[in-house]
Amino acid sequence: MLEEDELKPYIGGILKQLLARYSIDSLMVFNFEGGKKNNQTARIFSGYNMSAMGYPRNYEGCPLLTLEMIHHFLRSSESWLSLSQDNYLLIHSEYGGWPVLAFALAALLVYLRRCKDERKALEMIHKYAPPGLVELYSPLDPAPSHLRYLKYVSRRHKSPELWPPADRTLNLNCAIIRTVPNFDGEGGCRPIFRIYGPDPLAPHDSSAKVLFSTPKTDDFVQLYTQV
């Protein structure tokens, strides 16, 4: 993690190397950021007359994007790359944004049919990072969710008319925890579930709200052991 006074010369050095080889007009910039209004990384790019398209680095703490944002990223990337063989994508993630950046690149490989296998696409991107980087930034393993969303992207080739997927009601029948966390020191935990998403009763408000939370009473919050 770079301090603010270190970030500008770091990114500036990279941009100077790139602009020595490529035209500034050939680069489209994406930045997975922390959501600050006055984003420092975006200001650094603007100093080089480059505008960075910002995406959040997580959704309510989960290293994923909404399907709407995934669709926007994929279509923008495809459109830019198809304009010229000399066009390139410059993608930057701020601290903690690597898991989402890895997912976005894997989704782009699947979307452009550069890789047909979702798991291989994700593994291919992870090879470019030091071991353990995903675990460092994400307390939960994001791979199952990433693979599920990559399968959504794959469906675009099978049923283009169904992409992006329309909103529909889902029923959550069960939640499976493969390994029970040892929160109490004796091999058990008391899980509380929260579901975040836009309020279906307020279609014009896309911000995430708590749609469901387990009541904090003894009837619902029970102790589950590893056994």
Automatic annotation (TrEMBL):
Q: Where is the C2 tensin-type domain?
A: 167-227
Keywords from the UniProt entry: Hydrolase, Membrane, Protein phosphatase, Transmembrane, Transmembrane helix
The UniProt entry, under InterPro entries, shows: Formin_homology_domain, Prot-tyrosine_phosphatase-like, Tensin_C2-dom
**Coiled-coil residue spans:** none
Q: Note whether Transmembrane helix occurs among the keywords.
A: yes
Q: What domain of life?
A: Eukaryota
Q: Where are the transmembrane segments?
A: 95-112
* MF-aspect GO terms: phosphoprotein phosphatase activity
Q: Which PROSITE patterns does the entry mention?
A: C2_TENSIN
This chain's protein is named C2 tensin-type domain-containing protein
Q: Which organism is it from?
A: Aegilops tauschii subsp. strangulata (Goatgrass)
